[in-house]
Amino acid sequence: SLPSGSIGEKDNIPGPGGRIQRQMPAPMQLGSGTVDALPSVTFLGQQEHWSYGVQANGKIRSGDNHHNYRLGHQLDATGWIARKVSDQLSLSARLAYQYAGEMHGAQSDTAFNPPFAPSRRTVTTAFSENYGGQRIDASVGLNYYFREGVVAGNRVALEISTPLLQDLNGFQLETDWTTTIGWQYAW
To answer: Of 61, 62, 75, 99, which one has the greatest count of Cβ atoms within 10 A?
Structure first.
């Protein structure tokens, strides 16, 4: 991955004394600012009515970016099993593990504390100790494949996930549940 996403976006940050134009913290930037390796491996098994597999993806970050920080390394691993109910419908179950390491370094150009109260930490995402952690999710899903009509060849999928474990570093928002809806067409 090449550092093509911005890491210097600014916005008006509200706070006591009004809105102040300042750089947004790293979690609110589109890029990492580093060259990253993206290793991945997948195993897929298929039988007449069953499919199953495992996949692992990583992000290995290189050095600090020009704002003097490096996002944490990441690992995503998932395992799934699916059962074909009919020629058009299948049901699935999945477990997923996500790990994000702590951010290293201090984000230069980010105003951590308001000038009138320098000891107050008003933007929690500006501090490296509030980045990273791990989570395990359990998911169930269904997949419907259209075989006829105007939408023939299209596939619609729905998956609902909930965390079994969340161990986040510092102050971060937790996830209660996630719904993913997808529409796919292959030719």
So the answer is: 61
Render the burial of 155-165: b for 16+ CB within 10 Å, e for the rest.
bebebebebee
- Give the other-Cβ count within 10 Å of 11's Cβ: 12
Q: Is the pLDDT of residue 116 over 60?
A: no
Closest CA to 147 of 156, 134, 136, 135: 156
Going by the DSSP 8-state scheme, the letter that residue 129 receives in this structure is G
CB 32 within 8 A of CB 61: yes
For residue 33, give both structure tokens: 């600012």
How many residues make up the chain in this entry? Answer: 187
Q: Does the structure show a pLDDT above 90 at 84?
A: yes
Tokens read off for 104: 């290293």
Which residues share a beta bridge with 95? 79, 138
